[in-house]
Specification:
Order of helices and strands: EHEEHE
Structural class: alpha+beta
Largest sheet: 4 strands, antiparallel
Radius of gyration: 14 Å
CATH topology: Alpha-Beta Plaits
Mean pLDDT: 90
CATH class: Alpha Beta
Number of domains: 1
Shape: globular
Number of strands: 4
Amino acid sequence: MKISIELSLYPLAEQAYKSEIWAFIKRLRQVEGLNVVTNGMSTQVFGDYDLAVANVMREIKHVHSTTGAAVFVCKFINGDRSQVEDENERLTC
């Protein structure tokens, strides 16, 4: 089974918070089998359910144990949502 995870990390430490965020992303990108995509608002992780969840949770624990206070905002969505939707499949309001 596949999963898509969207996360945002907000370190509460005043020193070098950007470096903490990029270190977190870099560690996830080193995991073979995960597709990690970033943009200006969040990081998306796509891959096998067990592999993705285990590694995201490991990295969250790493940040909490080494950085101190940090907030994570996460969304877990079953399936691989990495593909851009076809214009005809989008819902219209």
